Amino acid sequence: MRLWHGLLASLWTTLRQLRRRDTLQYPEQQPKLGERWRGRPILTRDPDGEERCVACELCSAVCPTHCIALEGADRPNGRRFAQSFRINFARCIYCGLCEEACPTVAIQLSPEFAFAKTERGDFVYHKEALLIDGTGKHPEYRYYDHAGVRTQALPEPRNCDPRSNLP
């Protein structure tokens, strides 16, 4: 008797699911994504139009698959920037740790999820392909304003004895 009860219960569960119509006609109908969907990483800009990335390499350090590689450089005004930035999407697991580690909110995860390639080498995106014109999720955020860092080189103080601790 227990066998028949279990069999009929599982058959009833299967028949109930046949009424549901969850199938979408993709790509004509796009699926609804959650608010915290983690899609393709992008690099954003300041509201002024400059790159937000200061090449701190925290995103590269925290990435569990080591798919992020970057090199930093200094501008004449003292501000750092990423001279080269590369993400290998064939290795990326879209965990979002790079977005959480970024102090400048430069790297963000976009809702884009459908980007298929036929060659493995096409999954390596460089800085030009990752950098967008907008500010992303945080439109008014400026890292250097919040950090209190001056981007202009300070002049040497006058009448300073380098062997003394006094000002």
Polypeptide structure, described:
- With 167 residues, the chain is of the alpha+beta class.
- It has a domain at 42-147: Alpha-Beta Plaits, CATH 3.30.70.
- 22% of the residues lie in helices and 15% in strands.
- The chain is built from five helices and five strands, in the order αβαββαββαα.
- It has helices spanning 2-18, 58-62, 97-101, 127-130, 143-147, and strands at 41-43, 68-74, 80-88, 107-109, 124-126.
- A three-stranded antiparallel sheet has the order 2-3-5. The protein has a two-stranded antiparallel sheet with strand order 1-4.
- The longest helix is centred in the N-terminal third of the chain and has 17 residues, at 2-18.
- The N and C termini lie far apart (92 Å).
Blueprint of the fold:
Layout: H1 2-18, E1 41-43, H2 58-62, E2 68-74, E3 80-88, H3 97-101, E4 107-109, E5 124-126, H4 127-130, H5 143-147
Antiparallel strand pairs: 1-4, 2-3, 3-5
The neighbouring-strand order within the major sheet is 2-3-5
Q: Sheet bearing the most strands, described?
A: 3 strands, antiparallel
Q: What name does the CATH topology of the domain at 42-147 carry?
A: Alpha-Beta Plaits
Approximately how much helix is present in the residues?
10-25%
**String of helices and strands:** HEHEEHEEHH
Low-pLDDT runs of 5+ residues are none
End-to-end distance: 92 Å
Radius of gyration: 25 Å
- CATH hierarchy, class of the domain at 42-147: Alpha Beta
* Percent of sequence in beta strands: 5-15%
Question: What is the CATH architecture assignment of the domain at 42-147?
Answer: 2-Layer Sandwich
Mean of all residue-level pLDDT scores: 84
Shape descriptor: elongated
Give the number of helices: 5
Structural class: alpha+beta
Beta strand count: 5
